[in-house]
């Protein structure tokens, strides 16, 4: 099987996502008063309504409707004032009533869009964008200095109830294949669930991954879900088809179900693109089917032939009245919108003169964005000058530290905004070198001490006094006349040798910038 980068030279992938998010911050389920709680004893949060007992009547959760309207406003959707709940019929043990309550052709949120910034190595997968000049357009992508921005359409965000959870016993890794029997936990049944469906505007697995990450940031900012992929409160299905470069007609799509991590989403789509290309190039046929990504074997496996809408026999739910949202209700929800990640990034650019790249990466995680902002507040009048080095510390060092210790919260570490700001100031004032700053950063976290105390204890104060450094430079040049002659003969790369010798003589405490300047001056 060919590699992804080779396949994308000849084939264009057409990808659409269906992203499901449980509204975990609510207190009760969608159509009943049962408590929402993860990880409790099975079948302890159920009632006749969520179990679909005869005669039990559902009542919509107003707070859940507020949450989906928030999601729609945050993703530039039109909010439909009039919509209905439907019954989606299917027979499977995870729903006792044999239908799922969902929305029909008209959802609460329709016709939205998000701009997706793609840069760095992620931008290389869309090979046609990489060849563009700045500001040139390739389909839905516009070239930028660091990559491109793709406009991704959102077909709809609709409300539905989640199903129960099937626990397969006896099979490998909890899968149904090979299981001896299955147990059903109905605690999740009836949980408010919103499903966002994109247009088929994504062209690479990296774009799909980045879109999912951006949507998670938005939902977290709105505080409508904890978006835990590990707990299943954020899940994604990916639809993908291939067509030859330059072709307009869409190919036959397959669906990858329940991608439960960003890496699995990327890797599953990448494999499926390569698999479809291999089938088509060998003269085979792609079938519309649902497939499962197995991260252990790193391949997709057929689950079932894809159902169509007719298979679900959708019809309006007779137990639920049509939903009519007033202008006043919609505007009251709009007033609750917080500052969204894109808005925060734009403000960071505007207030602190940061690049779009730095600002976007600062807001990727709420805690790092809050930490950076706390540091800038402490900096006061020095904020503009310290913003860039502080952004570098947060994006590179702090993020790497947290990634290496998954599950660790920044506010649980010894690194406070005060200490981070002090460290950045020491480097900005040339009290320590950038190399020493990394040593101090690690020591702050390991020893729970202030940067200034660590610098003093380790004798790391950087010498910037010109006269003191000049005497060392003179001694080094005098001790290496042959190297001086070679430098003046054209071997200018030897400047690094002289600087290194000076740093060695000063036991690493000399200011490299001052040493470089003096060496260049005396050799010139």
What does this 3D model show about the protein?
- This protein is an alpha+beta fold and 524 residues long.
- The protein has 3 domains: 4-333, no CATH class; 341-457, no CATH class; 466-523, Arc Repressor Mutant, subunit A (Orthogonal Bundle).
- The protein has helices at 4-10, 62-74, 127-130, 205-222, 262-281, 327-334, 341-352, 356-362, 366-379, 383-404, 417-428, 434-447, 451-457, 466-479, 481-488, 495-505, 512-523; strands spanning 11-22, 78-79, 82-83, 85-89, 99-103, 109-119, 137-138, 141-143, 147-161, 165-169, 181-185, 192-198, 234-244, 254-259, 289-294, 299-305, 315-316, 323-324.
- Strands 1, 2, 6, 7, 8, 9, 12, 13, 14, 15 and 16 form an 11-stranded mixed beta sheet that branches.
- Helix 7 (341-352) packs across helix 8 (356-362) and helix 14 (466-479) packs across helix 17.
Give the SSE layout:
Layout: H1 4-10, E1 11-22, H2 62-74, E2 78-79, E3 82-83, E4 85-89, E5 99-103, E6 109-119, H3 127-130, E7 137-138, E8 141-143, E9 147-161, E10 165-169, E11 181-185, E12 192-198, H4 205-222, E13 234-244, E14 254-259, H5 262-281, E15 289-294, E16 299-305, E17 315-316, E18 323-324, H6 327-334, H7 341-352, H8 356-362, H9 366-379, H10 383-404, H11 417-428, H12 434-447, H13 451-457, H14 466-479, H15 481-488, H16 495-505, H17 512-523
Parallel strand pairs: 14-15
Antiparallel strand pairs: 1-12, 1-13, 2-6, 3-18, 4-5, 4-17, 6-9, 7-8, 8-9, 9-12, 10-11, 13-14, 15-16
Helix pairs in contact: 4-5, 7-8, 8-10, 9-10, 9-11, 10-11, 11-12, 14-16, 14-17, 16-17
């Amino acid at each position: 099987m060919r590699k992804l980068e080779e396949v994308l030279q000849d084939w264009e992938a057409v990808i659409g996502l269906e992203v499901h998010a449980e509204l975990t911050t609510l207190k009760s389920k969608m159509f009943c008063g049962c408590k929402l709680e993860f990880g409790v004893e099975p079948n302890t949060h159920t009632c006749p309504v969520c179990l679909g007992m005869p005669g039990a009547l559902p009542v919509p959760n107003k707070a859940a409707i507020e949450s989906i309207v928030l999601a729609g406003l945050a993703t530039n959707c039109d909010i439909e004032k009039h919509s209905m709940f439907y019954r989606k019929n299917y027979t499977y043990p995870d729903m006792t009533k044999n239908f799922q309550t969902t929305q029909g052709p008209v959802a609460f949120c329709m016709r939205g869009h998000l701009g997706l910034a793609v840069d760095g190595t992620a931008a290389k997968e869309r090979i046609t964008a990489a060849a563009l000049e700045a500001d040139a357009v390739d389909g839905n992508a516009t070239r930028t200095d660091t990559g491109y921005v793709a406009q991704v359409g959102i077909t709809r965000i609709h409300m539905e109830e989640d199903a129960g959870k099937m626990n397969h016993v006896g099979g490998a890794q909890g899968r149904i294949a090979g299981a001896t029997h299955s147990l059903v936990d109905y605690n999740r049944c009836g949980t408010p669930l919103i499903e966002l469906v994109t247009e088929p505007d994504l062209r690479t697995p990296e774009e799909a991954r980045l879109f999912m990450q951006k949507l998670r940031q938005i939902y977290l900012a709105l505080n409508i879900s904890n978006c835990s992929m590990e707990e299943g409160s954020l899940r994604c299905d990916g639809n993908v088809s291939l067509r030859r470069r330059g072709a307009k007609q869409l190919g036959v799509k397959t669906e990858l179900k329940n991608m439960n991590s960003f890496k699995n989403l990327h890797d599953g789509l990448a494999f499926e693109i390569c698999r479809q290309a291999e089938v088509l190039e060998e003269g085979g046929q792609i079938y519309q089917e649902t497939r499962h990504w197995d991260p252990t074997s790193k391949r997709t496996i057929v689950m079932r032939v894809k159902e169509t809408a007719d298979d679900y026999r959708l019809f309006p739910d007779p137990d639920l009245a049509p939903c009519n949202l007033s202008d006043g209700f919609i505007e009251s929800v709009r007033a609750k919108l917080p500052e969204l990640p894109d808005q925060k990034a734009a403000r960071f650019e505007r207030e602190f003169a940061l690049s779009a790249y730095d600002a976007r990466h600062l807001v990727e995680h709420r805690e790092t964005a809050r930490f950076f902002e706390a540091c800038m507040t402490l900096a006061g009048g020095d904020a503009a000058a310290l913003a860039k080095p502080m952004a570098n510390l947060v994006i590179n060092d702090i993020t790497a530290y947290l990634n290496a210790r998954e599950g660790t919260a920044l506010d649980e570490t010894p690194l406070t905004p005060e200490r981070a700001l002090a460290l950045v100031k020491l480097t900005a004032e040339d009290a320590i070198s950038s190399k020493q700053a990394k040593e101090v950063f690690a020591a702050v976290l390991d020893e729970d001490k202030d940067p200034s105390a660590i610098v003093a204890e380790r004798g790391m104060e950087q010498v910037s006094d010109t006269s003191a450094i000049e005497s060392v430079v003179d001694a080094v040049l005098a001790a290496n006349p042959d190297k001086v002659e070679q430098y003046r003969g054209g071997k200018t790369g030897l400047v690094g040798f002289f600087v290194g010798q000076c740093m060695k003589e000063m036991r690493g405490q000399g200011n490299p910038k001052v040493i470089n300047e003096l060496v260049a001056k005396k050799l010139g």
